[in-house]
Amino acid sequence: MSFLYSAAYDVLKAEVRKRASSVLTEVGGRRGLELCYSGSVSKEGRGFQALGLHFADGAELVVESSGMFIQAGDGVFCLAVVRSESFSIVGMMVQQGYNVGYDLNESRVYFQDIDCQLLEG
């Protein structure tokens, strides 16, 4: 799971809701997750357009639907991001398919998109 500070979470939630409104059916929240839809991540969520998370100093992380949503039960999938009042944590699902680099001296983070299929062969 990922956790976003409230102000950032509200922007993300509004953008997901806007993009999903014409293609997905919103249902009530599940298991502490606020934004849920009817269907499955692998079917209905598959065509959801990727979103970019923009960080200070220009770092960007593009998140596909498989890293953005989690199956919350039979026929319901939800945004796999939780509101936080004090911190932000980019979870493992969002980081899938990326190398993550940290420059501790400059206090910067870098994301490098990797093609996992190239690693399998």
Tell me the count of domains: 1
Q: Work out the number of β strands.
A: 10
- CATH third-tier fold name: Cathepsin D, subunit A, domain 1
Number of helices: 4
Strand residue content: 25-35%
What is the correct CATH architecture? Answer: Beta Barrel
From the N-terminal CA to the C-terminal CA, the straight-line distance is 29 Å
Structural class from helices and strands? alpha+beta
Name the poorly predicted regions: none
The proportion of residues forming helix, as a percent range, comes to 10-25%
Organism: Linum tenue
Keywords: Hydrolase, Protease
Protein name: Peptidase A1 domain-containing protein
GO cellular component, one term: extracellular region
Quick recap of the structure?
With 121 residues, this protein is α+β, with helices and mostly antiparallel strands. It has one domain: Acid Proteases (Cathepsin D, subunit A, domain 1, Beta Barrel). The protein has 4 helices and 10 strands; from the N terminus they run E-H-E-E-E-E-H-E-E-E-H-E-E-H.
Secondary-structure map with pairings?
Elements: E1 2-5, H1 6-20, E2 26-27, E3 36-38, E4 51-54, E5 60-63, H2 65-68, E6 69-73, E7 76-79, E8 81-84, H3 92-95, E9 98-103, E10 108-113, H4 116-120
Parallel strand pairs: 1-8
Antiparallel strand pairs: 2-3, 3-7, 4-5, 6-7, 9-10
Protein name: Peptidase A1 domain-containing protein
GO molecular function, one term: peptidase activity
Keywords: Hydrolase, Protease
